[in-house]
Amino acid sequence: MDIFENVIPREKLRSNEPLKDHTYVKVGGYADTLIHPTTTEEIVNVVQIAKSHQIPLTIIGKGSNVIIKDKGIRGVTMSLSQFDQIKVHEDTIIAQSGANIIDVSRAALDHGFTGLEFACGIPGSTGGAIYMNAGAYGGQVDDVVESADVITRDGQRMTMSREDMKLSYRNSIFKDNEYIILEVTFRLQKGDKEAIAAKMKELTMLREAKQPLEYPSCGSVFKRPEGHFVGKLIQDCNLQGTRIGGAEISLKHAGFIINADHATAQDYQELIDLIKETVYAKFNVQLETEVIFLGE
């Protein structure tokens, strides 16, 4: 902790911080040290100090598709949630990795750009959206992203093109290496502002009608297996409403597991395992998780 105080203001450092307060699902243990940088220089400094002192470094964004395990995270956890500026330049939007992807879609609307309507209800950071190649309602990030500025775990900066990122369904090169996303550039087309607004309103209403937004959750738990819909598979196994501890398969949308009553990460893990085993036994379909577990 002390070694970071020379490069990060004291108010951006916290010890023994409950990480459930920093995720949408509201579960998880404590971070030994949590850092909230707001500048590129601070991020680079944290990365370099962690590397030189061999301190484990974990990166989180808005915590929307993440479950922190019950014993928390050792070393340093760096949250980029306050590194969140958005700039519009000609036909591009440049967003820092902690910016809400919803806010990026709204900036596109404000400037009459089409292409990001699908993101108007995705509750995560821009960096997380690139990391997961997030998508909804027929659109996904790789349709509109142009490039990303990143740093390596050695603190070296570089720019990656869309091709460099190897974006595929809920996957990217960032899952398999140590790059940290700093800033993302989206290239968009001019569109009709009223039509863009109408599409975003329609998608927001669809989401509110179908998803259990009234409860904490980690969003969509599983990737969609080819030729199937996860929610229907789970429904057809008669698992909807099943609860382990405080975690429950949503009655509103079976693809979501809600935190119904002070759930733990262990509750989530056991319920996910139960779903996987039951679906495989009945349909011979191997479900793969989209949600990411972090910590110990």
TrEMBL record:
<keyword id="KW-0963">Cytoplasm</keyword>
<dbReference type="InterPro" id="IPR011601">
    <property type="entry name" value="MurB_C"/>
</dbReference>
<keyword id="KW-0132">Cell division</keyword>
<dbReference type="InterPro" id="IPR036635">
    <property type="entry name" value="MurB_C_sf"/>
</dbReference>
<feature type="active site" description="Proton donor">
    <location>
        <position position="220"/>
    </location>
</feature>
<keyword id="KW-0961">Cell wall biogenesis/degradation</keyword>
<keyword id="KW-0521">NADP</keyword>
<feature type="active site">
    <location>
        <position position="290"/>
    </location>
</feature>
<dbReference type="InterPro" id="IPR016169">
    <property type="entry name" value="FAD-bd_PCMH_sub2"/>
</dbReference>
<dbReference type="InterPro" id="IPR006094">
    <property type="entry name" value="Oxid_FAD_bind_N"/>
</dbReference>
<dbReference type="InterPro" id="IPR036318">
    <property type="entry name" value="FAD-bd_PCMH-like_sf"/>
</dbReference>
<comment type="pathway">
    <text>Cell wall biogenesis; peptidoglycan biosynthesis.</text>
</comment>
<dbReference type="GO" id="GO:0008762">
    <property type="term" value="F:UDP-N-acetylmuramate dehydrogenase activity"/>
</dbReference>
<keyword id="KW-0131">Cell cycle</keyword>
<feature type="active site">
    <location>
        <position position="170"/>
    </location>
</feature>
<comment type="similarity">
    <text>Belongs to the MurB family.</text>
</comment>
<keyword id="KW-0133">Cell shape</keyword>
<keyword id="KW-0274">FAD</keyword>
<keyword id="KW-0285">Flavoprotein</keyword>
<dbReference type="InterPro" id="IPR016166">
    <property type="entry name" value="FAD-bd_PCMH"/>
</dbReference>
<feature type="domain" description="FAD-binding PCMH-type">
    <location>
        <begin position="27"/>
        <end position="191"/>
    </location>
</feature>
<dbReference type="Pfam" id="PF02873">
    <property type="entry name" value="MurB_C"/>
</dbReference>
<protein>
    <recommendedName>
        <fullName>UDP-N-acetylenolpyruvoylglucosamine reductase</fullName>
        <ecNumber>1.3.1.98</ecNumber>
    </recommendedName>
</protein>
<keyword id="KW-0573">Peptidoglycan synthesis</keyword>
<dbReference type="Pfam" id="PF01565">
    <property type="entry name" value="FAD_binding_4"/>
</dbReference>
<comment type="function">
    <text>Cell wall formation.</text>
</comment>
<dbReference type="InterPro" id="IPR003170">
    <property type="entry name" value="MurB"/>
</dbReference>
<keyword id="KW-0560">Oxidoreductase</keyword>
<dbReference type="InterPro" id="IPR016167">
    <property type="entry name" value="FAD-bd_PCMH_sub1"/>
</dbReference>
